Glutaredoxin-like domain
Amino acid sequence: MTRQGCHACEVAEADVARICADLGVTWSAVDVDGDPELRGEYGDRVPVVLVDDAEHGYWRVEEDRLRAALT
C-alpha cells in the first residue's frame, strides 16, 4: 500500500521490487488514496507491505523478514 509523492513509499517499492525479483515473486503497488476504505485502513501508516493479503509490516521493509515470508 503506497501513496504518490511519499518518499518512504518510493524506497519501500524499490526494496520490494528488488527482493521479489531476486525470488521470482510477482508483486504490485496499490495507491491507498484511490479507495476511501484503503485510505482509512492504511493511510496513516504507508508504506504497508501485505503478504498473501495479510499485513506484514509498515513504514519500512525488513528485508530478512520479507524474504522469509516469501519463501
The radius of gyration is 12 Å. The beta strands are 48-51, 54-58.
